[in-house]
Amino acid sequence: MNETHRTTHPRDHFEISTLVSGFFRTMDERRFDEGWAGAYFTDDLRTTTPLGIAEGADAVRHIEEATGRFAATLHISSDVLVRAEPGARTASASWNAHMTHVHLDSTLQVRGENANPLFTVGGVYEAKLRRTPSGWRFSHMSVRAVWTTGEPPVLPAETATRVAKLTGAQARS
């Protein structure tokens, strides 16, 4: 057995894996009611995504906004690896994700008659977590695309410019 997994208590692995699944389900079902983020994140959350780095409430807003750029999403996680010493207050986790996004009608109209309605991403998430009185919560989360098919959403001009600067890609709005 790999030493990284030998010390992780099965309960911690279960709780963190369930947190990952719950977070993805919340995004796919668009359950962004007031206070939703407290079930998944610490107040000082830091996210790193292809759209940039965000912290705290801004990080939560970025998650909501990114999800809202699509008519529907389906996020599937697999191979959750958890590293936590028994009784530790912190942990790290990583998992693979297959993320399918259905474009909004407005995006398809801009792109024209033969536009692909899907933007699909295969990626890897890395996270740091803290044990709180309410259970494990993400304190840092990053996602890295390994591959994509289709085109990303049509972004607002200022977001497209920021992404272009971060990625070196040509801005599209």
Please tell me about this protein's structure:
The protein is built from five helices and six strands; from the N terminus they run ααββαββαββα. The relative contact order is 0.18. The chain is 32% helix and 41% strand. Strands 2-1-6-5-4-3 form a six-stranded mixed β-sheet. β1 and β2 (52-55) form a beta hairpin. The chain starts with a helix and ends in a 6-residue tail after the last helix. The protein has helices at residues 3-6, 10-29, 56-68, 105-111, 157-167; strands spanning 41-49, 52-55, 70-83, 90-103, 118-132, 135-149. The chain is elongated and about 55 Å long. The model is unreliable at 1-5 (pLDDT under 50). It has 173 residues and is α+β, with helices and mostly antiparallel strands.
